[in-house]
Amino acid sequence: MAGHNIRSICQDNQDHFWVGTEGGGLFGFNPSMKPITSIQQTSRTGLPTNFIGPMMKDRNGAIWMGMGSDWSSGTRGQIVRFEPEMGNFTTFLPFPSPHHYAFILTITEDEQGRIWFGTGNMGMIVYDPIQKYWRQYVHNPADSSTLRGKWARAVTSDRRGHIWIGTDAGLDRLEYTTGRITHFVNNPKDPYSLSSSYILSLCTDRAGRLWVGTDGGLCQYDAARKRFIRYTEKDGLPDNTIANLVEDSDGNIWLNTLKGLCRLNPQNKTFIPVDLGDNYFISGNVHIGACYKADDGTLFFGGKNGFIHFHPHDLRFNQTKPPVVLTALHLFDKLLPGSYDRQTLTLDHDQNSLTLDFAALNYTSSEKNQYAYQLEGFDPDWVYAGTRRTVTYTNLDPGTYTFRVKGANNDGLWNEKETFMTLVIQPAWWQTTWFRILMGMGLAGLIYAVYRYRLAQLRHIQTLRDQIARDLHDDVGGVLTGISFYSEAASAMHREGRYADSYALLQKIADNARTTIERMSDVVWSMRSDTNNALRLAERLESFGHELLAHRNIQLLVETDPVLERFSLPPNVIRNLYLISKEAIHNAARHSGATEVRLMIRQTGGKVNLTVQDNGQGFVSQTNGEGNGLDSMKKRAEVIGADYQLITALTKGTTVRVRMAA
Predict the structure, then answer these.
(1) Helix (H, G, I), strand (E, B) or coil at 105
(2) What is the pLDDT of residues 568-594, one digit of tens each?
(3) How many C-alpha atoms does 278 have within 13 Å on its Cβ side?
(4) How, if at all, do strands 115-119 and 104-109 pair?
(5) What is the pLDDT averaged over residues 586-603?
(6) How far is the C-alpha of 655 from the C-alpha of 649, rounded, in Å?
(7) Integer distance in angstroms from the first to the last C-alpha of the chain?
(8) How far apart are CA 473 and CA 461, in angstroms?
(9) What was the pLDDT predicted at 169?
(10) Dihedral of CA 558/561/565/566: which sign?
(11) Which segments of 371-416 does DSSP mark as H helices, in order?
(12) With left for phi above 0 and alpha for psi between -120 and 50, is residue 273 left, alpha or beta?
């Protein structure tokens, strides 16, 4: 049969085997697999086309065939019933349509003897031989109660009489009596859904388990929990595309994948790839549905270049579970001698890029040994590496890791006893626990210091507010009290006709009001954010001095340093320096008889020096009480921690000097 594209294989009641080909017609073999006949498309044979699709023997011994689409002969998915003893072919075309092609993809018989045909593009067709009735189940995108897809590639039935249909868009479960269809699809967010919605093969085993072959692995349906259990290459499959599923006489499930055959033991869920050597010419060239189990247990698998057959009992598997050993360890591609013999290996923090080599001690086709590894603390799960026996890890963080590796022999038998090595990568000094503790303590101390500083600032601001409130109460409150008293007195004088006295009191009220406005203006100015440096203070005092002294023909000379703008001062310092200077200028204007007043603000040695000097008559300084104004200046200097000095003598003028750290 070499050179023929095999689509199906079937055994009749005389133990003859029939092989359907794509374009080559139908071939018959005796029980010894010797060719006995070849049936081609002719009017005499009754075979409608040489394109034979799936075949299935029913309970009466008739073989049902699905014809492929042969456009040259005009056949479109015809169904043929073949009676081998008579050599008769009966053709059916239950749902002919010139607008659709619908070749047959799969055939099965349920427990009631109904024949089910999966088609391409036209869903499912069922035939009841007793009632002589045909029925069709189609896909309608607008109706969710219909099939999930147009292409029904696989079909099987279970013990409950449900019909399972594998489509190109999901798996359907059909309840024949009610017509109800339940859909199962892949949900990327649900690990218990189908691994893929593209269904290729189905199998119900003797225990009633449903197996689903997809292009994303094998799935087993858990009917009790209504979910699917997935099996993929990491579980031992040669490949995730499962073209065919068939159960052997011992209850094992045989899987035909794109990378070869595999045997599954459903009890312990172990997969053993089957190596048929050079005879397995269909690897990578499999046909969906081209598999068959004969009555004596022989398995058949067809492909694009013929078919193979064997009995599972004739195969000999390597039952030796190979231990795995570490063979080398490299640090930055440099061999570390003897390191692989240790159970624990300790490395410095900068030795965190390494390569491990390993090997399974199986010498039968050792090139087919398989490996799986996991670095606990880095790999979230086992990594199935196939035949690759080396792994590289780079930039590992400090810590303790356990490297585990296991292997399988040439027949895919895994040794679950792992080989392991503990790897300890020591941290650098800045990565150690004690360093982190010190850093944590330092950070906590810094946070506490910031907290204390912030608390001090808040207390300072509160103190400043309290001071301003007291000053306002003492200064403005007293003035307002005087205004209230003068207002009542002026009103009484006015009623008594004492208009001149009443006018004099009104003048005092006006003076007091102006004084209040001036003091309030001073408070507001000192609290502004743009007046917190010595230069702004000098500008304010210069403006005040010119306005006050000009009316008394006293010349004001101002001397400042350009660097004063860089010296920021707190609002309470600015305010008190301003009030001290203002009081000194007032005294010079009212009492000194001077013709010149000098205002000097300079920076010397990191401190601000403020001086108000006049050339007036001076006075004799007293040690005990020097008047409210002088005492007030001294007290304000003490409040802000400034050095205060008053220098005066008769005919020598007066100098007020304040020195404040910037």
Answers:
(1) strand
(2) 777 778 888 888 988 899 899 888 889
(3) 0
(4) antiparallel
(5) 90
(6) 10
(7) 106
(8) 18
(9) 95
(10) negative
(11) none
(12) beta
pLDDT of 468 > 50? The answer is yes
Residue 14 is predicted with a pLDDT of 93
By the 8 A CB rule, do 243 and 201 touch? yes
Question: 324-431: same fold as 58-76+94-314?
Answer: no
172, β-bridge pairs: 165, 183
pLDDT digit string (tens) for 538-568? 888 888 888 888 888 999 999 988 787 777 7
Q: How far is CA 651 from CA 309, 593, 615, 644, 648, in A?
A: 135, 10, 8, 22, 9
- Return the pLDDT at 282: 46
* Burial status of residue 533 (CB atoms within 10 A of its CB: 0-12, 13-18, 19 or more): middle
Task: Find out whether 80 and 91 touch, Cβ atoms under 8 Å.
Answer: yes
Cβ-contact 356, 339 below 8 angstroms: no
**In the chain, where the domains are located:** 9-57+77-93, 58-76+94-314, 324-431, 433-527, 529-662
For residues 183 and 544, give the distance between their C-alpha atoms in angstroms, rounded to a whole number: 92
Do residues 297 and 248 lie in contact, with contact meaning Cβ atoms separated by under 8 Å? yes
The span from the CA of 537 to the CA of 82, in Å, is 116
The predicted pLDDT at position 296 comes to 94
**pLDDT, tens digit (0-9, with 9 covering 90-100), for 304-322:** 888 889 999 988 888 889 9
Ramachandran region, residue 517 (left: φ > 0; alpha: ψ -120 to 50; beta: rest): alpha
Q: Give the DSSP letter string of 223-257.
A: TTTTEEEEE-GGGT-S-S-EEEEEE-TTSPEEEEE
How far lies 285's CA from each of 145, 217, 261, 300, in Å? 36, 18, 12, 14
Helix, strand, coil percent content, the chain, rounded in steps of 5: 25, 40, 35
State yes or no: pLDDT of 283 exceeds 50: no
Band of pLDDT at residue 474, cut at 50, 70 and 90: low
Measuring CA to CA, which residue among 457, 433, 660 is closest to residue 569?
Answer: 660
Mean pLDDT of the chain: 86
Q: State the fold for domain 58-76+94-314.
A: Methylamine Dehydrogenase; Chain H (2.130.10)
508-513 long-range Cβ contacts below 8 angstroms, 24+ apart: 508/482, 509/483, 512/479, 512/482, 512/483, 512/486, 513/483
Q: What integer pLDDT is reported at residue 500 of this predicted model?
A: 82
Residue with tokens 């750290």: 661
- What torsion do the CA atoms of 172, 175, 176, 179 make, to the nearest 10 degrees? -80
In this prediction, residue 281 carries a pLDDT of 47
pLDDT at residue 260 tops 80: yes
What CATH number has the domain spanning 324-431? Answer: 2.60.40.10
Q: Which helix (H) or strand (E) holds 629?
A: helix 628-639
Two tokens, residue 217: 């692995």
Q: What is the pTM of this model?
A: 0.59
Task: Retrieve residue 340's tokens.
Answer: 């692989």
Q: Judge whether 136 and 125 are in contact, CB under 8 Å.
A: yes
- Give CA–CA dist 437/470, Å, rounded: 48
**Domain range 529-662, CATH class:** alpha beta
> What number of other Cβ atoms are within 10 A of residue 22's Cβ?
18
